[in-house]
UniProtKB/TrEMBL annotation:
GO molecular-function term, one example from the UniProt record: FAD binding
UniProt entry keywords in alphabetical sequence: FAD, Flavoprotein, Oxidoreductase
Protein family per UniProt: Belongs to the methylenetetrahydrofolate reductase family.
Protein name: Methylenetetrahydrofolate reductase
SUPFAM superfamilies: FAD-linked oxidoreductase (SSF51730)
Any one biological process term the GO annotation gives: tetrahydrofolate interconversion
GO cellular component: cytosol
Organism: uncultured Desulfobacteraceae bacterium
Cofactor(s), names only, from the UniProt record: FAD
InterPro entries linked: FAD-linked_oxidoreductase-like (IPR029041), Mehydrof_redctse-like (IPR003171)
Catalytic activity: (6S)-5-methyl-5,6,7,8-tetrahydrofolate + NAD(+) = (6R)-5,10-methylene-5,6,7,8-tetrahydrofolate + NADH + H(+)
Pathway participation: One-carbon metabolism; tetrahydrofolate interconversion; Amino-acid biosynthesis; L-methionine biosynthesis via de novo pathway
Length: 290
């Protein structure tokens, strides 16, 4: 069963995020895709979300499809105007990609091409609406398409640090759902009880909610996120657990796997984010019992 059917039928889905290369050597991406073949439902390909120039998400998605895996590509409003965005969706469909997630993009100031000029021709809700229009057979100017794509559309909720910001993010997500988003991906989950509280509000969106499981690679990363990432809620107990572990790397993988296993009783899926440690995805899946 493909990702589209699984998400619409209410089954639990497992997504694994993989960056494209900064260059044309695709060997690492291909090896990592093959490592998890048959164990996840789709590979999520970011589209230079962090402001770092890489191979396009469409390219990564096409390579993933070539390996027989479903692909979910990120699209954002920062880098392209409405014509280019619509053209990308049509090209992605022609290359066998059937799933997109409309995401916010970090400022160019945080990337490696700080002189690049953003487009921001559309906002996220408008882009969701544009993709839904393409699915219906017309472009944003109302012209009929010669063959329509069939994209499953997702959206993302940005991190939030307090109840007021959570309410704002849920309101924005609701606007995207009304515009056509069919599933929602949340920020990373480190505190399951807090996530359950958030989920009670998020499930009112009426579409599948897929939390992100972020792999903490070290005590330093855990401490940094606890101090500087809004809403991370990484406990001192978790940091202490990693610090005292005989094998800290394995402990981090185990924590990610345990989080995935616990979320199976709450949400309709997970997105695993490893940020360069994609080779460790099989170990995380083992700890998760997948």
């Amino acid at each position: 069963m493909n990702f589209q059917k699984k998400i619409s039928s209410g089954e639990f889905v497992v997504l694994a995020e993989m960056d494209t290369p900064k260059g044309v050597d695709i060997s690492e991406l291909i090896i990592n895709v093959r490592r998890i073949q048959g164990r996840v439902d789709a590979v999520v390909i970011p589209g230079m979300d962090s402001g770092v120039m890489r191979m396009s998400a469409i390219g990564g998605g096409a390579l993933t499809r070539r390996e027989g895996m479903e692909a979910v590509i990120h699209v954002c409003c920062r880098d392209r105007n409405r014509m280019a965005l619509q053209g990308d969706i049509l090209a992605a469909h022609a290359l066998g990609i059937r799933n997109v997630v409309v995401v916010p993009a970090e400022s160019m100031e945080k990337g490696d091409h700080r002189d690049a000029k953003p487009s921001d021709d559309l906002d996220e809700t408008e882009l969701v609406r544009a993709i839904r229009s393409l699915n219906s057979g017309t472009d944003m100017s109302g012209f009929e398409l010669n063959g329509r794509p069939g994209m499953t559309i997702g959206c993302a909720i940005s991190p939030f640090g307090n109840e007021k910001e959570m309410a704002r993010q849920l309101k924005l997500a609701n606007e995207k759902v009304r515009a056509g988003a069919e599933f929602v991906i949340t920020p990373p989950v480190f505190d399951l009880e807090r996530f359950k509280s958030f989920f009670e509000n998020a499930k009112l969106l009426g579409v599948p909610v897929i939390p992100t499981v972020f792999l903490l690679k070290s005590v330093g990363i855990a401490r940094y996120m606890a101090n500087y990432e809004p809403g991370a809620h990484i406990s001192e107990d978790m940091i202490r657990r990693i610090r005292k572990a005989p094998d800290r790397e394995q402990e981090c993988l185990k924590i990610a796997g345990e989080t995935i296993a616990a979320l199976r009783d709450v949400a309709q899926g997970v997105k695993i984010q490893t940020l360069g440690w994609e080779s460790h995805l099989p170990a995380i899946l083992r700890w998760a019992g997948i």
